Each structure stands twice: as structure tokens, then as C-alpha cells.
């Protein structure tokens, strides 16, 4: 039953992750697929570059909302199954599964986003103070460089370190954080190449 609870948490989280905010909002409001624009990525950064920041709040609400929902579903299902000691694990597993569904959505032919926003939402759910550290790193780099990809990569590298610090001795939590961190860096491989070649695009917040 314990395995069933964890599998159920992971499955529901993954399916929630398929609800991609950038794809949904670009389709509903602009009758376009954000993946056909700009970098082709189904994420918030590509959405902002092509449609501005004013409508990006809806993308944020969807991607953050599905992550929070996945986290608490995961936590509640393991508690409902009688494994209250796995509350934190269930919450982390649900959130990580949402990120995997966001990155590799079966209903979008596995062409999703890079999971940074969902990863930040997961950190917020797991520990608000940890999220503030994560956000501070991201924001400081963004203000000084305007390279969202660099901010994301550095933040991803900090991800397992923060989980190790805030959840000492919880190796299952650390392992999931490390896995998501590695995947996020791999998803940015093209950005890393452009950063090294100094051809990466900068992002400036704009309204339209």
C-alpha cells in the first residue's frame, strides 16, 4: 500500500504537470502556440519575450497552482493511506512529478518547458525561507545580467544544496532535488552553449 500511495502521488502530479501555462494562455488569448515562437520553449521566459509580462501572470498562476496542488495531493494521499511519516516525502514527490510532467508532457508530445518556475513553486511549498534564498539568488543574477538562462542554471545548481541544508538527513528529499537540478541544467544545454559563445539573448520586462 505504501508503494501504491507513492505511485498514485507521482502519477497525479505528472498529469497535472501536463497543464502547461504558457501553451494554454498563448492558445486561448493569442490563438498561437508559444512553442512556435521565439526559442520554441513552452515556458514563462519565452512567453514574456513574445507576449509581454501583463498576460504572463496567468501563466504563473497555472504553473504555480498545479505545482502546489500536486504537492499537497501527494502529501494528503500518503497520509490518507496511513503513512503520516511520509508527509514531506509525498509533498516533494508530488511536486517533482509535476515538474517532470511540465518538462516531458505526454499530451504535448513531450515538448514542454524547463521547469524553473515549477521548481521555485515547489521550494515555496517545501519551505518558504528556502524559497526566499532561491529567489534572492535568481533575482540578484537577473538584475545584474538579464540572462534568465544563467539565473536558472545557477539557481538549479543551488537547488540540492538548499534542500540538503533545510532538510538535513532526509536523503529521499535530497535525491529528488538533485535529480531535478541535474535535469534542469541538461534542459538548458543550448543556453549554456550560447552563453559560452556570448550569443544568448537577454530578457527585459515589458508590457504589451
Rounded mean pLDDT score: 93
For the secondary structure, the number of strands is 0
Rg of Cα set? 17 Å
Q: Tell me which oligomeric state these chains represent.
A: single chain
What about the largest sheet? Answer: none
- Give the class from helix and strand content and strand pairing: mainly alpha
Write down the secondary-structure element order.
HHHHHHHHHH
Short recap of the structure:
With 208 residues, this protein is mostly helical. The chain contains ten helices and no strands. It has one domain (2-197).
Secondary-structure map:
Elements: H1 2-17, H2 21-30, H3 44-51, H4 56-80, H5 87-103, H6 116-126, H7 128-145, H8 148-166, H9 171-187, H10 189-197
Helix pairs in contact: 1-4, 1-5, 2-4, 4-5, 4-6, 5-6, 5-9, 6-7, 7-8, 8-9
Describe this structure in words.
By secondary structure, this protein is mainly α. The protein has one domain (2-197). It has helices at 2-17, 21-30, 44-51, 56-80, 87-103, 116-126, 128-145, 148-166, 171-187, 189-197. The longest helix is centred in the N-terminal third of the chain and has 25 residues, at 56-80. Helix 1 packs antiparallel against helix 4 and helix 8 (148-166) runs antiparallel to helix 9 (171-187).
Amino acid at each position: 500500500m505504501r508503494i501504491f500511495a507513492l505511485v498514485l502521488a507521482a502519477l497525479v502530479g505528472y498529469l497535472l504537470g501536463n497543464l502547461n501555462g504558457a501553451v494554454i494562455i498563448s492558445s486561448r488569448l493569442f490563438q498561437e502556440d508559444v512553442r512556435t515562437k521565439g526559442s520554441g520553449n513552452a515556458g514563462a521566459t519565452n512567453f514574456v519575450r513574445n507576449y509581454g509580462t501583463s498576460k504572463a501572470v496567468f501563466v504563473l498562476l497555472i504553473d504555480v497552482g498545479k505545482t502546489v496542488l500536486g504537492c499537497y495531493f501527494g502529501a494528503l494521499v500518503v497520509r490518507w493511506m496511513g503513512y503520516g511519516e511520509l508527509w514531506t516525502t509525498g509533498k516533494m514527490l508530488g511536486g517533482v512529478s509535476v515538474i517532470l510532467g511540465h518538462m516531458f508532457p505526454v499530451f504535448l508530445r513531450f515538448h514542454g518547458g524547463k521547469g524553473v518556475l515549477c521548481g521555485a513553486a515547489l521550494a515555496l511549498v517545501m519551505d518558504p525561507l528556502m524559497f526566499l534564498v532561491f529567489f534572492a539568488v535568481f533575482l540578484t543574477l537577473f538584475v545584474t545580467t538579464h540572462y534568465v538562462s544563467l539565473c536558472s542554471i545557477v539557481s538549479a545548481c543551488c537547488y540540492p544544496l538548499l534542500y540538503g541544508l533545510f532538510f538535513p538527513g532526509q536523503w529521499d528529499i535530497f535525491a529528488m532535488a538533485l535529480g531535478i537540478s541535474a535535469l534542469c541544467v541538461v534542459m538548458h544545454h543550448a543556453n549554456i552553449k550560447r552563453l559560452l559563445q556570448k550569443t544568448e539573448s537577454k530578457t527585459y520586462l515589458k508590457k504589451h
